[in-house]
Every structure is written in structure tokens, then in C-alpha cells.
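Contributing: when you submit paired examples, paste them exactly as shown. First protein:
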Amino acid sequence: MSSRLTVFYDGACPLCIREIGALRSLEKGRHIDYLDVSPPGAAEFCPVPQEQLLARFTVRRKDGELVDGAQAFTEAWSQVPWLVWLRPVGRFPPAHWLLDLVYAGFLKIRPRLQRFAGRIAQEKR
């Protein structure tokens, strides 16, 4: 069991890289370990199937429990000191339900957003 939250992310996804970059810059590496699960060899250290981690944002809490989707985002962003209030909000059943609904909608448009973010990243090169 780790004393830090672990974020599993898709390092091959331009959209994911931006999100993780924002989180890293705000929490400054004090509370979160980041694991890129996109490389082919990453499957050997994934706690669940690699495809599952690539499909939904997932974190391993300090107590070892894996959570995904909207709850994972609230757990991760609550590691930023001025956003710690997100954890109880994300666990409140009506808010949790609404956040999961929004995340499910996001997952439907994620492929288009990834392509758009990829084009922007290429233009900056």
C-alpha cells in the first residue's frame, strides 16, 4: 500500500497529457504518483487489464482501492490543496451520479477531442 495516490493515464493521448500536465503543475508532485499505462510493456504493472485503464481515468487511492471515472477525477484533483473540497462533493450520491453522467457523455466525444488535441499539438511543433 502506498502513502500516495496513483494516477494511471494514457501517455499516448494528447488530451490526457494536457490534463495530467495541469494536475502535475498544481499539485507539484507532493501527493500523486503518475503511471503512463500506454506503452506495450505497461501491462505487466497494471493492476487491472491495460485496456480498462486506457478506457477510463483510474486512480489507486492511498488505501489501495481502485476508483475510476468521475470519482477518480475528484480523488486526483482533491490532492491540490485549494481543491480538497472536491472529495466529499464527489462522494455525495447526487453529485456522484451527476458527475458520472457528465463523464459518460465526455467518453462519447473523447475520440473527437483526442483528434482535435492531437492536431493542435502537431501544429505547435
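Second protein:
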Amino acid sequence: METLNEHQKKFSKKWKNPFLFSLYFLFNVPMGWFSGMRITEISEKKCITYLPFQWYYRWQNKNPYKSMYFAVQSMGAELSTASLATLAIKGYSESIALIVTEMSSKYFKKATGNLTFKCEEGEKIFKAVEKAVKTKKGVQTRVKTIGKMKDGTIVSEFYFTWSFKKR
């Protein structure tokens, strides 16, 4: 895998900065901002997102069953794949459209604590973007992200199908 170019490095640095990330989400994705999600790690290979679940602080993330609401989990999961997709398209001067065309999820345990979502399919995303630029046709790729609590318990698994097309 190639190293990141200057635009990608700048995006990565900005996305890892809690203040800049929070400011961006406040104005562009308010529900993401309200949830308190953030990026803890991003590279061309993987992205890890964090979702808080404190009863006294993030009450809006919970459901009546004393666990994290599935839609909040979906936001954190999508962010772990979307950040990789955005990082990949930052590598090109061409305009590239990206959109989620499909999403599915599985839930294994109640999310009763802070969650991290880890997507380790950055290479797959980068290759799909490269193919879309070379062929000038739409390319789809399906990626997986796994949600875990601090103790390592897997609570959910999400699959997102991303579509990339050079405009």
C-alpha cells in the first residue's frame, strides 16, 4: 500500500483533532455531534471510532432497555467506514462521488458501555476508489466494522456497501 499524500495526511490530522472534528460535526452532522462520537485512529488500513455511553452524560445514546440505541451504533459504525472512504478519495484531484448503497447489521450483546468500532478494510476501499478512477465506472465494495465494549465483548457487526464513481 502506498503512503498517504499531503491532502490525505491533512485530512487524517484534522479528523483526529477532537476540537476540529467536533466543530465539523456540530455544523455538518449534528446528530453525530450530539452522540459524542469521535475518531481515535485512522490510517490507510483501518479506522477506529469511539462512542460514549455514560448514563449521566450521554443519556441521548441510550434506549429504554438500558443499552445503547442501535441507531447510535449505526452512526459510529458508519463513521469508521466513511472516514476510510473519504480518506481514499482525498488521494485524487478528480471529483469522486461516494455513497452508501446498502447496510446490514447483526447484534450479539447489549451495548451497556462505551463502544469502539474498528474497520480494518481500508486497503479494500482504496483499491475500489483506484478502480473507479481508472475505469471511470461506478465501483462498489462491501466492508465490515465490528463494535466492541472496553472488555472486548463484541456487541455488533455492520456491513456497509460503498459506491464510488468518478464524476
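If you have annotations for the second protein, write them as plain sentences, like these:
The first strand starts at residue 38 and ends at 42.
The beta strands are 38-42, 47-51, 96-107, 115-119, 139-149, 154-166.
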